[in-house]
């Protein structure tokens, strides 16, 4: 059987300036003592490459600094054969936003391969040639699970709450970083999420 066990991967906590980062990292270390931390690296592409460099395992999990991980995540196994996937895939598990109850890719736990991360060109170093490469979730070998093993607390300060809501409001209003001209053209799930972010 071709299976991947979460417990075999390094856990890397990714922080920048989140006011609840230290508390959340302490919680992560209690549950997963081997967890590592990458802090204050500017740019999402550069920060993820720093995670790949610090990981001692070929596959590693990234945890956003505003996120608390359920200890049961350690028991997760991915059956590649059952899913019809291969070892080139990256994985994500839906994150839950405590402030508004939404569950989707925001704040999700992600499992990467070092090779993928070291060779990707996303966010601040995206060259504009491949519209799928700006954001991680648009890669063809990116698989999203609907199961949830994390909760993100994005309102530890008024600024953090505003920044999170503004960012998601923009992301829900565009399609692969292109402005959607009419509200009715927004993908229905993103439109629903946008309405929630605008009202909470």
Secondary structural class: alpha/beta
Quaternary class: single chain
Could you give a short account of the major beta sheet?
7 strands, mixed
Number of strands: 11
What does this structure look like?
The structure is a single chain. The protein has 200 residues and is of the alpha/beta class. The chain has one domain: Spore Coat Polysaccharide Biosynthesis Protein SpsA, Chain A, CATH 3.90.550. Helix content is 30%, strand content 30%. The protein contains 6 helices and 11 strands. The chain has helices spanning 21-31, 44-54, 80-83, 114-119, 158-172, 188-199; strands spanning 3-5, 10-15, 36-39, 59-64, 67-69, 77-79, 90-97, 103-113, 142-152, 174-175, 178-179. The strands form 3 sheets. The protein has a 7-stranded mixed sheet with strand order 3-2-4-8-7-9-5. The protein has a two-stranded antiparallel sheet with strand order 1-6. The chain has a two-stranded antiparallel sheet with strand order 10-11. Strand 7 (90-97) and strand 8 (103-113) form a beta hairpin. Helix 5 (158-172) packs antiparallel against helix 6. The longest helix is centred in the last third of the chain and has 15 residues, at 158-172. The mean pLDDT is 92.
